[in-house]
Amino acid sequence: MIQLNYRDAKPIYEQVKDGFRRLIVQGVMEVDEKLPSVREMASSLAINPNTIQRAYRELEQEGYLYAVAGRGSFVAGVPEEDSARRKELFAAFDAAVEELLYLRVGEEEICQRVAQVHQKMMGKGEKAKE
Amino acid sequence: MIQLNYRDAKPIYEQVKDGFRRLIVQGVMEVDEKLPSVREMASSLAINPNTIQRAYRELEQEGYLYAVAGRGSFVAGVPEEDSARRKELFAAFDAAVEELLYLRVGEEEICQRVAQVHQKMMGKGEKAKE
Amino acid sequence: MIQLNYRDAKPIYEQVKDGFRRLIVQGVMEVDEKLPSVREMASSLAINPNTIQRAYRELEQEGYLYAVAGRGSFVAGVPEEDSARRKELFAAFDAAVEELLYLRVGEEEICQRVAQVHQKMMGKGEKAKE
Amino acid sequence: MIQLNYRDAKPIYEQVKDGFRRLIVQGVMEVDEKLPSVREMASSLAINPNTIQRAYRELEQEGYLYAVAGRGSFVAGVPEEDSARRKELFAAFDAAVEELLYLRVGEEEICQRVAQVHQKMMGKGEKAKE
DNA sequence: GTGGTCTAGACCACG
DNA sequence: GTGGTCTAGACCACA
Question: CA–CA separation, C89 vs D99, rounded Å?
């Protein structure tokens, strides 16, 4: 369900967050669907429950999940006000583009790449609402 | 010459590296031009010499600089073999683009953004216009 | 009769308690009126009977209900001695007001809010108009 | 500097957060002022460093602090966009007011209380900007 | 069984 | 010495 890469500099809890955020934003997980319990995820990924809990907690703070003590964690949907996330993404995007441009990668090539990514997505994730 | 932002989460040595890499790649610093000594940089930026040294060392490893014992560090130019770096950048780029697309940001808007970044760069470092 | 919100962080038994406390204090339920049995409530709300039992037990401790073994639970009225509860509420109230004032929310706006809350309450439970 | 109450239902990390948020919002701590290090706070309050770190991390996410690895944590100021915090506060406020009204506390008395809190604040925290 | 808090202690990168 | 991540394991309240 979630792929971890221990060699990646990105912390594990971030990888878990990104994984679930993707599933939610793509519509693979539906609203009110139950997530695996903290302990289940922890044992299935062979990592510490605290690490999973941190990922869940932060996703809850961001509005992707809601947790009910004693019952579990559930998909809340994609938060309307995700402007914060967009800012992050645009910042990462800008940084990458800037450096690519410095490395003499053309503006056209970059825009083509956007289209390619788009194509690839359409192929895979047809579940995403339109 | 180099602008540091202490509030930024990015480590100081990274900021120093990025600053010089930019100056080199933009052509502001010419090949074989001498960089300020580690001590000079350290005192002018009011930071630890170790931090500067690390930046210089890594830039040398990446091929942007060459060091001559007892004389200092000099600009080597923009390394040809930066394909590894490109791969990294494209991976980061693709991930950002993909999530932006999921968040209903249009392909056009993204491409426009590329152009904007390009513009902004041109504004700063006009020497790079090639 | 009682509205549950599973997404709310507030525990179910608290929601049940609050629901009945409101009905009693508003006069919707009259003194000596019988409450639904634990089993009835549990099945009508589709939750665990233990949860209902806990709500009833605590309301009894607080003086809102009295239980008669073998016959059920009945409304006792609004307990006079709720000064402890008042203290708690005033403490929470003061803390909220203080921080709102620090955040540059005006005294007038806050007082208007009190009136609004009052209005909204009147709308729902008009029997409480005294 | 910060007062902990172990008997309070409020988690310790929340108490720490509230304490620092208050100091910042009141202007007692100035922008760019350094906070005690995680380990200092932990030992001075006799609690685990992880608990302090969680408080600091969340305050950073909320925009009150910024942290620089290797240097420390510093006051960022009062985030402009604290609408989320306001919502929380108003929710707590409304809940308290509603229940007070049910307990037959008059609207006038409540508004007077707001004024009293305001008075008390003026007396103490004259450092708060105007 | 669930999520939530807290502790104790480890290791890392940064300066 | 700083913050940041992670582990291991405990205890609690809730259902």
Answer: 8
CA gap A22, B99 in Å, rounded: 8
For A64-117, the pLDDT digits (tens) are 999 998 889 999 999 887 677 888 889 889 988 988 887 788 899 999 999 999
Query: Are A65 and A16 part of one and the same domain?
Result: yes
Say how far apart CA B12 and CA B55 lie, in whole Å: 9
Token readout for D115 is 């004024």
Residues 19-38 of D with CB under 7 A from strand F: 35, 37-38
Are D18 and D35 contained in the same domain? yes
Nearest alpha-carbon partner for B55 in B12, B84, B86: B12
Q: How far is the CA of A123 from the C1' of E5 (A)?
A: 44
What's the predicted TM-score (pTM) here? 0.87
- Kind plus residue range of the DSSP H or E element containing D74: strand D72-75
Q: Say which residue, C92 or D52, is predicted with more confidence.
A: D52
The amino acid present at A87, given as its one-letter code, is: K
Say which residue the tokens 């002018």 belong to. Answer: B44
DSSP D36: P
Q: Quick check: is B1 in a domain?
A: no
Amino acid at D99: E
A2 CA → E1 C1’, Å: 23
Residues of chain B (97-116) having a beta carbon less than 7 angstroms from strand E: none
Structure-token pair, residue C87:
């203290």
Asked whether strand E has any atom less than 7 Å from the CB of D63, the reply is no
Please give the Cα distance from A69 to C14 (Å, whole number): 13
Count structural domains, chain C: 2
- With residue C66 as reference, give the H or E element that holds it: strand C65-68
Smallest Cα distance from C80 to chain A, Å: 33
Give residues with Cβ within 8 angstroms of C71, minimum separation 6. none
What does the alpha-carbon distance between residue D128 and residue D29 come to, in Å, rounded to a whole number? 10
Q: Domain span at residue D117?
A: 83-124
Chain mean position to CA C18:
3
Would you say the C-beta of A50 is within 7 Å of strand E?
yes
